[in-house]
Design goal:
The structure is a single chain. By secondary structure, this protein is mainly alpha-helical. The chain has one domain. The radius of gyration is 12 Å and the shape is globular.
């Protein structure tokens, strides 16, 4: 059995334009979600949404230095 996460592109490998486009696309999804202050919940929602689009995202991506 293969690991589905192996088929995902790492967030850090995306260009700045690709990351921006995904964040912009996610905004409409975000607007439809219930509000939360939980960083864990926000991360889970964004990570799952990106995975559906073939992108892997983790807490480590939040800690990456700016390019």
């Amino acid at each position: 059995m293969t690991n589905p996460s192996q088929d995902l592109r790492p967030w850090a490998s995306l260009s700045a334009d690709e990351q921006l486009a995904l964040r912009n696309d996610y905004q409409s999804e975000l607007d439809a979600q219930p509000l939360t202050c939980s960083l864990d919940e926000k991360m889970a929602r964004f990570t799952n949404w990106l995975a559906e689009r073939g992108v892997a995202f983790s807490m480590d991506d939040l800690r990456q230095p700016k390019r």
